[in-house]
Amino acid sequence: MKASVFYGKDDIRFEEVQKPVINDNEILIKLKACGLCGTDIHKVLEESVSKGTVLGHEFAGEVVETGKNVSSFSIGDRVTGGIHVPCFTCDQCSRGHYTLCPEFKKTNIHPGGFSEYIKIPVEHVRHLLYKIPEELSYSEASLAEPVACCIHGQKAVNIHPGDRVLIMGAGPIGLIHAQLLKKQLVKEVVITDVSDHRLNNAHAFGADTIINTAENNLRDYIQENGHPGFDIVIIAAGVSALLPEAMNVLKRGGTVVCFSPFTINPDVTIDAGMFFHDEKSIVGTYSVSPYEFEEALLAIQNGVINTEVLITHEMPLSDLGEAIQLTQKKNENVLKIVLKN
After folding, report:
1. pLDDT by residue (tens digit) across 18-76?
2. Where on the tree of life does the source sit, at the highest rank (predicted)?
3. Residue 178 — φ and ψ, nearest 5°?
4. Which CATH code for domain 157-284?
5. Pairing relation of β-strands 58-66 and 78-81?
6. CA distance 79 to 118
7. Domain positions in the chain
8. Burial zone of 179 (CB within 10 Å; 0-12 exposed, 13-18 middle, 19+ buried)
9. Residue 265: what pLDDT?
């Protein structure tokens, strides 16, 4: 079979790799669609993974082979799922911190979503593989993982009807967050970014207000509108400098959700007095547990997520390198790219 294999940021090869062989408890799927995630892009551009790695985790495909002990899925089933499975029994799992389970990152699909065939291990078959509703396309179903991650992130904080929420970052993740928030009857969703191309899409995803922070000051917006700050701030861009800014525009008693990884220059300075005097909070959220996938599929199925506008490009699996380059063109209207097989 073939896969798009990483060798360097300018060297991704669509080449022959060994087709996975399953055991009696596993499943083999033929990939139909795999979303290009921001983490995939960062891993390639920062060359933070080993040569020979096959990335991709937002997959959807068709079951083409099942182990003899597998009874919950059949050949021909359309499926999607995640890549990491917790043990459900350790100290972290017992407290609901499934993504912090020591076994979580040890589990994975093989070789990765950007390949023609994927082996689904027994843990995933049991806990993290879901049948795709008939009315959803494979491309739409590939959005289940990022939508589930956003649901997981919003569960980390108490969101109330009437809240004012700021989303920092108008990429696909920020836009998914906005759509989920509007269904929770928040009073206002403000999305910020430094790209007009991204911000121009935000109203279609539920943003009440868009602000280009390269040209406008968030504090000025708050003062002009006479409110005490945002109840919730979701940082949906991996820029560490956004954290102090988020704390400064946060309402007393509010919470900042650090959704995106701060991989570059993560050290920042925050006025620690805000934690005591203003009871402001910061929470981190990572990945997704098995419990959010069904919610994500329902959100897509019920039209909460505007998949038609969100998916701006569908490209062949062989064009992974070109897809990543496309995301770096600032004047292109690029939101979600889905690679298809």
Report:
1. 999 999 999 999 999 999 999 999 999 999 999 999 999 999 999 999 999 999 999 99
2. Bacteria
3. -60, -45
4. 3.40.50.720
5. antiparallel
6. 12
7. 2-149+288-340, 157-284
8. buried
9. 80
- CATH H superfamily, domain 2-149+288-340: Medium-chain alcohol dehydrogenases, catalytic domain (3.90.180.10)
pLDDT in tens, 311-340: 999 999 999 999 999 999 887 889 999 999
